[in-house]
Fold this sequence. Notes:
Distance between the termini: 56 Å
Mean pLDDT: 96
Strand order of the largest sheet: 3-6-9-12-15-18-21-24-27-28
Low-confidence stretches: none
Oligomer: single chain
Strand content: 25-35%
Radius of gyration: 20 Å
Shape: elongated
Number of helices: 4
Number of strands: 28
Structural class: alpha/beta
Helix content: 10-25%
Amino acid sequence: MISEKAHIDPSAKIGDNVTIHPFAYIDKDVVIGDGCVIMPFASIIRGTRMGKNCKVYQGAIVGADPQDFRWKGGFTYCHIGDNVTIRENVIINRGIDPNTEGTKIGSDCWLMANSHVGHDSVLKGRIVLGNNVSVAGDVYIGECTILSSSVVVHENSKIGDWALIKGGCRITGNVPPYCIMAHNPTTYFGVNATILRKSNAISEERVDDIAKCYRHVYQTGTSVFNALHRIEADVDPSPERDNILSFIRGVNLKIVAVPKDLE
């Protein structure tokens, strides 16, 4: 299951039923969980903590040194959840501060070829990054979000749960939950209703309530502050409504695709 032609540091902890192909590189102080597969020429760098049943494809680098001048060479971390697929030539940088948990990729994520995740970013569970997606440092992406091919997410941006970012978008701020964003400059394109319906995660009535929330935010010409008060008065309480309200308030009402004079 483990090739003699792979480099595996003696300090690395390898779980049960792990397959490591020839010419893979496993650095010191790495943890690889049960059932993982590391393909040829993949590199798992020090400080990486990988869960169970992950697969890392050719040329990927997990836990690469941070690309940030603030990093002074300290020992930092990269955490990978269970059942994560990391395709060819993906690069995931670990954190820059030894006193934090560093970069975190949640369980059941799928990172397609040539995508990049910067230092200290947090990707929650069941996220898809399309080919050539670039996620900068200190980014947060919520559960079940999809970033289509060649999306660029700038530093300190935050994307809510169940968002869909269409191919080629540049995200330079905060995208609230359940939205579709498209075009450049980034524009609100509706509610991610198709994915929500396919998932059977919520009822049709609550999908309609999400759409009603975003009509207040994006389509009435009022300020974000006023839109939130209208949502509270007009939309019945639900986990989705509360998620939208708490997200927008948590980023101080600064969300993408809203004119500056309406923030």
